Amino acid sequence: MTDAPVIGVLALQGDVREHLIALAAADAVARPVRRPEELTEVDGLVIPGGESTTISKLAVLFGLMEPLRARVRDGMPVYGTCAGMIMLADKILDPRSGQETVGGIDMIVRRNAFGRQNESFEAALDVRGVDGDPVHAVFIRAPWVESVGARAEVLAEHDGHIVAVRQGTALATSFHPELTGDHRVHGLFVEMVRANRGPGSL
Question: In the chain, what's the furthest Cα-to-Cα distance?
């Protein structure tokens, strides 16, 4: 599609390939982003799962943290899954030493809230903004959102815990939709990016 938005995946750690595939299936032009100059070439960005402390330190090391914060402040659409959700939180309840976030969503996140790797699980979730059947959600060492501010909209909960949030052009989920073959959450983000580019680009 010639009018497809260009969406990057922060390629420092995590399920980069799976996100690239899911974005392409949702009619975006998907490309990895590792350097600040690559960040300037995308209409939106996905921050994948992985280890949030490592992603934070690598983003600083690669000179990406400040440019990424600036673009998010300026309204670039961004979507974080699992560790990516932690990266988009304005506050982490239990940060590791030296851990930084990009921010962008007025929420407080608890790391590894759902338990260790061997306590990973799957669940069917109703996600606001995603039509059709419930979303098949995969949780792996997943965070949850302790609380959100007035500007943030809760999109989904599991067992009384917030697991999907949107604030303006920023989207975050505790779970990994890139692992399921269901590309509707990525489709929601692609539509957010399209809307942000304005009617002339559709």
Answer: 48
